[in-house]
Protein: Amine oxidase
Amino acid sequence: MATRDGFYFDNGTAALQHGLKCAGAISPPNNITGKETQPYDVIIVGAGYAGLTACRDLCIAGYNVLLLEARDRIGGRTYTAEVDGHLYEMGGTWVHWNQPHVYREMSRYDLTALLPSHVESSSPNYCATSFEGKHQNVDQMKLHAMTEKAFKMLCDVDGKSGREVLPYPHNPHHNPKAKHWEQMSVAQRLDQIKAALTGDELAALQAHLSSICGIDMDKAGLFDVLRWWALGGYTMDGLYETGDQFKIPTGQSNFARCFFEESLQSHHLKYSFNTVVTSIQDQGNRVIVNRTWSAKRVICAVPLNVLRKVAFEPALSPSKMAATRPGNINHGAKVHLEASSSALRSWSCASWPPTRVCHGSGDGLTPDGNTHIVCFGSNKDFLRPEQDAQDFAADCQKLQDMDIRKTVWHNWSKDPFSEGSWCMFQPNFSFQHLKALQQRAGNILFANSDWALGWRGFIDGAIERGGRAAKDVSSELDTFRKPAKI
Structure:
């Protein structure tokens, strides 16, 4: 079945397809018969991993749940598109056993056999670079050493590789000293260390940082980079192994369906897809959604940049609304290319400053034996999606002679239900706003990876927040089901 989301551009014929085959597309789009008794115990708004986790946990606990989703599919900013028999992860992809919440769920659904994205077993095993207009092919190990030196220098803010400033990565505000670095942009930190780096080392670092932050270095918060560094074990190898190496062979949409199907099997789930939530009213004894459905509690699991589109009554607190104004600053792009032949399986590229592509690498082979390349870069505002496809292909072809057959992607910045990619914060944001984003508003709870404590912006962070919200709701509603003690 197909979803409305995603683009496929045939580079040979210049034909564009909007909407891709996806295991996460749900049919029928709703199972509401009109005979349901209201209020529901819980209404969950959003069927990304946070919403799906809360939904599954509450359904199997015996609560009657209504799941509302604006898209025609589950997964939120994560879904798997199938094009000509090959799977492309359009959003969140990589998982790891050091991501505690996601790995627990993978174990639950017997999905711990992982597929590595990047290998160094074929030719050419080099990185094609364009640093400040200078093109060269750099041995992978040499580039690794350059980038590692620069990355470690960037993150060694305390002489202990960041371990003193961020001793507990899942409790990022534990050390008050972290606030000093949280107020700093990546560009300001680069200014502090650039004299100790060569021009190529600095460019290589910035290319990698651009693929992480998805925005200009002067707007990106250093604290988010330090958090990723700490979560990865305070090394560059650890950061990329945990966040950029292993994926589920059957795809993220298959993983998401495990949550959804278990919810359905409980016989406590009603759902409605293609349903945009525009209003949530907390009336004290119940919560009304879209002036149609009512429940004892609501879990709102929409992304940070979309919160302002929902009319809450009473209005959200000034502190929570203040957090939505800068919001998630990441508008980076993720684009898949299929290049003829298997020769580029171990190839990668890095560019600084980028036009569109800042980093790319081989990510497996298609059924035709061609190389699947995944690229990260800037998401500029173009009027036509064909321009996106042609620009990314052209950038890679400047760095490497290749015949690109297909381009597959999703523009998360243009998506009205995300308005951004994986969550990154600007400087001086986390200490000010993170707690407010996590706080509930009366009978309305909020669950999304955008305000996770640990792997924020990752699937793991979404599951963290969804599980926490479900536990809070269950603890409260359970008091109504227990007989009073005498």
Q: What stands out?
A: Residues 2-79+252-328+419-481 form a domain with the FAD/NAD(P)-binding domain fold (CATH 3.50.50.60). The radius of gyration is 23 Å.
